[in-house]
Write a structure and sequence with these properties.
Blueprint lengths: L8 H4 L6 H4 L4 H12 L6 H19 L12 H12 L5 H9 L2 H20 L5
Length: 128
């Protein structure tokens, strides 16, 4: 039976459930993670990536910085992010790596690159 309240499928795709990582972050970064995680599953990839970028930029404004706290060596955050990098979950290897080291500026740039890739795919081979 599908349980869209407690265990939505689009958040269970991956090496672990999305909530296992988002609960380790504040609101803005947790939301950014959620949107990157699901962008290939809900049918609104470009919108989800744009939302993720908005939350990353909001976190940078909140902190008045382009960096945030990196995942401490071998912490739960570190181990989960390394796993996502290793499997290139959601095609977002660089995003996960930059989240692990705490680089908001690079995360925003990664999302911009991913958005461009989605736009290219949506345009198709004849409109490039």
């Amino acid at each position: 039976m599908i349980d869209n309240v407690h265990h939505p499928r689009h958040y269970e795709r991956g090496p672990f459930e999305c909530i296992n990582l988002t609960e380790l972050y504040d609101f803005c970064l947790g939301n950014a993670i959620k949107y990157v995680w699901r962008h290939q599953s809900k049918g609104h990839a470009l919108e989800d990536l744009a939302k993720a970028k908005w939350y990353v930029e909001r976190e940078a404004q909140r902190l008045n910085s382009t960096v945030c706290e990196p995942a401490q060596w071998m912490s739960r955050r570190y181990r989960l992010l390394r796993k996502l990098e290793q499997v290139n979950h959601a095609g977002a290897r660089d995003f996960w790596a930059h989240l692990r080291v705490g680089s908001l500026a690079h995360m925003a740039a990664d999302l911009e690159t991913m958005m461009l890739q989605v736009q290219e795919v949506e345009r198709g081979p004849h409109q490039a």
